[in-house]
Amino acid sequence: MADKQWHQRAAALQPDGRAFIGGERVWASSGQRFDNHSPIDARLLGQVARCDAADVDAAVAAARAAFEDRRWAGQAPAARKRILIKFADLIVQHTEELALLETLDMGKPIQYSLSVDLPSVANCIRWYGEAIDKVYDEIAPTAEHSLALITREPVGVVAAIVPWNYPLIITGWKIAPALAAGNSVVLKPSEKSPLSALRLAELALQAGIPPGVFNVVPGYGNEAGAALALHMDVDCIGFTGSTRVGKQILQMAGQSNLKRAWAELGGKSANIVCADCPDLDKAVEAAIGAIYFNQGESCNAPSRLFVEESIKEAFLEKALALVPRFAPGDPLDEATVMGAIVDATQMNSVMGYIDQGKRAGARLLAGGAAARVDSGGYYIAPTLFDQVDSGMTIAREEIFGPVLSVLGFTDLKEAVRQANATPYGLQAGLWTADLSKAVQTARALRAGTVHVNQYDSDDITVPFGGYKQSGNGRDKSLHAFDKYTELKTTWIQIG
Question: Does 223 qualify as catalytic in the annotation?
Answer without folding.
Answer: no
